[in-house]
Amino acid sequence: MSxxxxxxxxxxxxxxxxQLDEELSHLTTSFAQLKGAQAKFKACLxxxxxxxxxxxxxxxxxxxxxxxxxxGKLSDLDSVIVDVGTGYYVKKSRAEATKHxxxxxxxxxxxxxxxxxxxxxxxxxxxxxxxxxxxKMAAGQGQGxxxx
Length: 148
Hints:
- The chain has helices at 10-49, 94-147, and strands at residues 59-63, 69-73, 79-85, 88-93.
- By secondary structure, the chain is of the alpha+beta class.
- Strand 1 and strand 2 form a beta hairpin.
- The protein starts with 9 loop residues before the first helix and ends with a helix.
């Protein structure tokens, strides 16, 4: 059984609005986190691209953690270590690493597009709900003035 939002009173509409606000907040937080993940994968792609013959034996900063870097030199230009998640690292060729990170970027982009559509639909629903609430409040005030 479905109920039209037109049939709800102001208090019920307020509850629906609160739920939509919470959903939108959660979705926009998820969107921001996915954008961060996408940026990380793109940075990984750029880093793999920097492993090239021109940089052999040059001193570079090697990341040990997100905030700790140590000086090092590129000695193996054919392979890189790829973080495949949950603390596991795999040695891959530069081409395999590029393919891996590009697939991650594409996957996250697909999810971002889907999430953006969902956020837009929720936002449209919220706007419609606010219009209904405003018209019901205006109608309620109009009835109050007619009685007075």
